[in-house]
Write a structure and sequence with these properties.
The chain is α+β, with helices and mostly antiparallel strands and 458 residues long. It has a domain of 199 residues. It is built from 18 helices and twelve strands. It has a six-stranded mixed beta barrel. Strands 2-10 form a two-stranded antiparallel sheet.
Amino acid sequence: MSKSGLPFFVAKRYFLSQRNIKSIPLMLIVLVVQMSFGLIIFLGKAIGVLFTFSPKRIRKTYKGLAERFIKQNFIQTLSNIAMIGVGFGTAALVIVLSLFNGMEQTLTGMFNRHNPELKIIPAEGKSFPYTWSLRNEIENVEGVKAITEVIEDKVLILYNNKQKVVTMKGVSENFALQTQIDTTVVLGTNKLFSNDTRYVLVGSGVYQELGLRLRDSMYPLQFWYPKRKGKASLDPGKAFNKKIIQAGGVFVAEPQFDQATVIVSLQFANSLLKYGNLRTGLEIKTTDDHTAQSVKSKLQKILGDDFIIKTRPEQQAQVLRALKIEKFFTYGTFALILGIASFNVFFALAMLSIEKSHDMSILKSMGATNKMIGKIFLFEGGLVALSGAIFGLLSGYIFCFSQEKFKWISTGANNGILDAYPVETRWIDFLIICLTVTTITVFASIIPAKNAMKNAGR
C-alpha cells in the first residue's frame, strides 16, 4: 500500500471496527443526549486544561476518569451520536429545501392559471392606442398564435348595500386560449361571451366578502367608474359611469388574485371605462414550436422601448424572489444548526487524539509523518460525516417521497388548492447539502488533527 493511501486505510479500519449494533438504540434518544454528551465533553476538556497546571494528584484523578470513559466505549458512543446528529441535520435540510421547492412549484402553477405566456404593457402610462398596424406587426411575428386585448382598471362595485373596490379585467373573446381560467371556475359557469345574457366572473374572495348570489336578477352587480372627461360634479349620476351585470361564476386561481379581481368581456369594460381604442395590455399565446423567451425577443425588436414584455416568471418576479430569499436564509439557519451538531465530531476526534497518542507514536516510529497522522483524523471525521450525510439524505428523500406520494401531512386548509404540504426534491439541493456537510466537518476536524500531530511528536 502506498503512503498516500495509508491515512484513509487507517481511518476506515478504525471507523468500521468501532461500529456495533449497540449504538442503534441511540437514534431514539439522540435529540436528548446529543447536547448533553457534548456539554459533558466540553466541560471535561475545559477542566483538563485547568488541571494541566494542577498538582499531580489532581492530574492523576482526571486521567483515571478519562481512562474509565474510554474503557466504556465513550468515544465510540460519542462518535455515533455525532454521526446521527449530522444525519438528522442533513435530513432536516433536505426536507426544508424540498418544502420550499414545492411551494415555489405550487405558486408557479397557481400563477399560470391566470397569467398569459407573454404580457405586453406600455413602458410609460397605463394605456396605449391599439391600432390595426400594431396588431398586424404583432401577428406577423413568428411564434405568435393569438392576441388577447385587455382593459384593466380599478372600479367600485355595489351589491345589496355592500361595496368593494376591485380590479376589473376586460378581455376579448379568445381569452380562454391564454389561461386556464375555465378550469378554475368552481361555481356557476363561464359565460362572458355567450349569445344570450352575459355575466361576470368574480374571484372567490369577492364572492365571499359581498355575499353574492349567482344570476341574481333582483340584485345585480353595479359597476361604478369616474368619468374620464367632463366637469366635476357632486351628483354621482353625472360624475360616474354606471353599468349593471349579474355574477355568473366564481373562480379560484390564486388567493391574491381571487381576493380583488373580476373578469368581464372587453365590450362591457369599454362601455363602462370609455377607453375607446386604448388598451392597458396585450396577452400573447405562443405556438408549440416556439418558446416564450424566443417570441419575446422578436417582439421586443419590433416594439422597441415603448413597451415592456414579460414572461410568466417575470410577471410574478417579486413573489418568487421573496420566496428564494426566504429559502436562502432558512438554509443558512439550518446550516448553522448543522454546524452546532458537528461540535460532537470535534469532541470525538479530540478525545480520540488523546486515546490514540501512543498508537500515533508507533506509526511515526515506523515512518509516518505528522502530515500523514493529521490526514488520518481528517479522514476519520470525513467518514463520520459521510455516514451521517448518507443516512440524512436517504431519510430526507424517503420522507419527501412519501409526502409527495401519499400527502399524509395536511395543511388543514380544505380549499382544494393546497390540501397537503407540497414537496419537490432537486439534485442541486442534494449537491449543496453534501458540500455544506463536507465543509463544516472539515473545519471541525482541523483542530483535532493538529492536536494529534502534536501528541504524536511527544
